[in-house]
Amino acid sequence: MNTVDSLPLDPACATLLRCRAEDMDADGAWLFWSNPPSPALCRSLKDHGQLVPVLVDGKGARPVLVAGAARVAALAELGREILCMDLGPLSAEDRGLAYVQSNAGAELTDGQLVRALRYFNALPDVNMERVLEALGLEARSKRLRLVRSWLTLPARWDALLVAGAVPLACSDLLEAFAAADLEALEALFATLSWSRGNAVNVLTWIREIRARDGVSVAQLLEGAGLREVLAAGLSPKDAMTRILHEIRLRRYPVLSDMERDFIDTVRRVSAGTRWRIVQPDVFESNAVELSVRLTSPDGLRAVSAELARIAAREDLDGLFPLGGK
């Protein structure tokens, strides 16, 4: 069933009317994706006029805007009357569905889906099957599951999702935090836009540290120097790198010490050579990899001598922290 066809009034029977912006109710909660008019839209309306009517429910004392908020704002700025298509009396659910269908064909972002479902979930006796069909969501899809998890968060988090500061993939992790911890976590995302991988990592480490040490998120972030990092004037990339480092250091203190000692040892023993030394297994084994790039037999003889000098050193234990001869 097509959702448009299920609306009370066949669009073919709709009537046209004109009104001024100040005579219209344009504050409906179903206008959940509204944005200010773009410069391109403003130019088009100024140069060519209104080619497409906005949608209204015109059966009350004032026409109620159902879709077309950007055009109404732009035409109001131009001081022009607004051409409206009256869809007839609509319920709150039908107004929301008509608004969704007026945006049909656009690829909906995670933020748009969250805002739409917040609106529909607040309505009594809503036909969720119709809503999900209009939004293009499968009832058993992973995306819908994540959206529903996100909807358990305070609505103020929606702005962070829409801005791209925190990905929808974090909704399961965020859902597990208490209200006070969520409030503390907002500082991580208020000015920084995290990739999915980094956001999942930092939230996972914070949750695990909290469970292990019994500290609040606010205490953890204060100990990690979040306030100082955010105030240091670093680029967003450098700030997130520093935060990730500090949180990981607290989640894996022993591993972090091993990594630091390994790096110090590598710098010391490979100084003046062309050898590259790495630990490939995140210290799950004692393996070490040495590599070098050669272009001639003389180069081979030279790096062989360098390797012999490295092997003769007495300070190689830092390369093999798990022990062994």
TrEMBL record:
<protein>
    <submittedName>
        <fullName>Chromosome partitioning protein, ParB family</fullName>
    </submittedName>
</protein>
<dbReference type="InterPro" id="IPR036086">
    <property type="entry name" value="ParB/Sulfiredoxin_sf"/>
</dbReference>
